[in-house]
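Narrative summary of target 7.
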Amino acid sequence: MKRNRKYIGLAVVVAAVGIFAVYHIIDAVQSGSVVSGKGLHKVTGHDATEDLREIGKVPSFELTNQDGRKITNKDFEGKVYVLEFFFSTCPTICPKMNQNMLKIEKAFFGNPNFGIASITINPSTDTPEVLKKHATDLGVKSANWHFLTGEQDYIMNLSNKGFNLYAAENGKVNGGFEHSGMFALIDKKGMIRSRSDEFNNPIIYYDGLEANGIAALINDIKLLLRE
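Modeled conformation, tokenized:
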């Protein structure tokens, strides 16, 4: 009987402590505080763009667009833009990349602070005239979407060393070239930006082939346009 009374007394104490703890948790939530570490810290405003890491400065480039005009990285200053490497006769991943880039164009059509740079890795074929027809066939409407061409070695160096996005000529593959299907996101200050994966590692570039990659990219473009 005495043992039962001890258990009852212990239960009452535990219940009291639990009620006390719940009261303080509710109070913390209502007052805008959360549990963090060993104490309670006031929740402050959070800018979502802080989660988009700066990967590094975009490499300088100077190329020719589909209208025969010289375009450099400075032409994109003050704009958020997406950059890719592709070629117009690509029979494999480029058509999918093109369609996904069109979705991005439509999402921000008419916004003067957004642009796209599509750089060919097959400039011997992709002259400004060819790229202009390619843009027309795709249905591109934005004046800020530049299809860019130049010297072969210059572009390969820009892709592989400047952006660290793989591109190479390979006569054994369909189309004669192979390249990354990733898109680079660049902010108004010319910094390459990236969100992080579930392990808090920067993804660096966005998947230009998968729907989730495009959805993430569109979301992050919106964030950077607000900066």
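DSSP finds five helices and 13 strands in the chain.
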